[in-house]
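S1.2 Input.
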Amino acid sequence: MNNYQDYLCELRDKGNYRSLSSLNYRGINNLNLSSNDYLGIGSRKDLQKEFAEFIDVESFQMSAVSSRLLSGNHHEYERLEHELSEFYGKSALVFNSGWHANTAILPALLDKDDVVIADKLVHASIIDGMKLCNATTMRFRHLDYKHLEQLIIKYQSAKRIFVVTESVFSMDGDVADASELIRLKEKYGIWLYVDEAHSCGVMGNLGKGWCEENDMLDHIDILLGTFGKAYASIGSFLICDRRLKEVLINKARSLIFSTALPPVNVAWSRFILEQIPGMQQERTYLKEISQQLRDVIKASAFRTLGSSHIVPMIVGDNSDTLELSDYYKQNGFFVLPIRPPTVPQGTARLRFSLTAGISKYQIQELLSFTKSIERHESILEK
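S1.3 Output.
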């Protein structure tokens, strides 16, 4: 146990110690600015009431009590996958989470003669999926498509090259270049795997995501979306060719060996899927307030990155970032620090994750307070 204690002490000394947080900070109920509830659905009582009428509560089991390949493939799964398939125009397969999907897809589809090239800043679940597969794996410099092309050329003799990227990156809030990815796919015949966790529901006229906004769906071989963010539910979904779906049903270990999601959660995801196309007003509002916050940070002593609804405030030092997070929370704003190894050394930050559920009054309060950070001398003088 001494080694574990030493490890914890080292984390504290470096300002990297983590603990579970609460929106109630020292008796202050904070405005949540660290949620992934991008469309504000999670707090919509009207939708919850409508959902109660959408389902037959008495007929619902609260647990699947089995994996999908045994007896857990209840009819709500089939209805949801059918509606996803209709929505995206390809086959759909639901997983328990984005982590379950990303750690299973590459190991199931690739072998030793294949190559995976992923953006340097892809999610940890994709990195773990790369570690679990038998293919040759590497990462290209973040959004550096010249570097990506060099690696594609180097490994052109591989049986298959899978290029993996997020559409909206979860820590910097920046966005992949659709035109460059299309160019590389058409030129070299690569397979394109796009994780749309932070863009599905939020981007595109119908809320299909970055793929819709950039007319990319026909160019993407593996599109992964999530229900745990803008949809305010749980689980993830894969959009792909029918043959890939069949392979994954037979080989994706997290699908085969996990208890299926509860029917009530799958029904809620299907209910929300039907609402998503009509939520363009929420998408527009989210885009507007995100840009307002980004502009205020740009005018401050700090810097920001990206162009999406994820707005980082780069502080740099770990302890300064913790101090600034506490300062926000003391004043009613729940925004959490993000530190290495989640982000590179020297780029510790506050990560504002805005939602359409934030009122105009609340966003103005946040903007005014952020402008006042100039007076937080204990950090700015360092």
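S1.4 Remarks. The radius of gyration is 22 Å.
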